[in-house]
Write a sequence for this structure.
């Protein structure tokens, strides 16, 4: 099968899986695949069908951020992805490689990426948490969890501890703006830096709207 044909089948499989939130839907997988291709080309390699499958199936099992088994979602996705890839004709070795990439992409999971495909997938998925799309996804997830946008009296936590379990905006300081330092490829790090700057410009604009000083995050 061509990559285009495999991609179509993967999109159908993902769309038919359990209902997914707007931050982890088929459109998210589409963007992760675009990022993965961009990083691959930037690193001088041709994107493989292993990477394609991993990009589309990395959130095959998507659990809410506050779910008690959230840290195991990547492992669960890797297990569920096996039969999908087998039906597409991937070899046992290719399936094992893709499953490793899926298991290793997670921020909260214990598996570290050992292959180039795994490193590229992790970077591609983390790019989705940055930039203008990252801003939109952060507030979409917070809304789904019923979390307010920001603390009404101290939105940028200048006089209180950061608490992203309560305030959506705090997540930018707690995690999102720290992501660029975790990227594993040169291309990914460059793109992450550019997208982090987009987020900081948003925060400066928000501070102006609120009559506050821009944060130093």
């Amino acid at each position: 099968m061509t990559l285009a044909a495999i991609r179509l089948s993967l999109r159908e499989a993902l769309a038919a899986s359990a209902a997914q939130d707007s931050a982890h839907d088929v459109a998210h997988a589409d963007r992760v695949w675009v990022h993965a291709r961009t990083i691959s080309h930037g690193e001088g390699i041709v994107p493989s069908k292993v990477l394609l499958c991993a990009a589309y199936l990395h959130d095959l099992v998507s659990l809410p951020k506050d779910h008690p088994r959230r840290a195991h979602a990547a492992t669960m996705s890797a297990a569920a992805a096996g039969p999908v890839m087998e039906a597409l004709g991937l070899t046992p070795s290719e399936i094992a490689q893709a499953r490793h990439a899926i298991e290793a992409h997670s921020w909260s999971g214990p598996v570290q990426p050992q292959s180039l495909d795994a490193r590229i997938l992790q970077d591609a998925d983390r790019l989705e948490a940055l930039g203008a799309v990252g801003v939109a996804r952060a507030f979409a997830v917070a809304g789904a969890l019923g979390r307010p946008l920001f603390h009404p009296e101290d939105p940028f936590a200048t006089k209180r501890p950061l608490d992203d379990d309560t305030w959506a905006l705090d997540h930018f300081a707690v995690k999102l703006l720290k992501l660029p330092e975790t990227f594993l490829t040169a291309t990914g790090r460059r793109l992450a830096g550019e997208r982090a700057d987009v987020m900081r410009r948003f925060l400066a604009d928000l501070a102006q709207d609120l009559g506050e000083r821009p944060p130093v995050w």
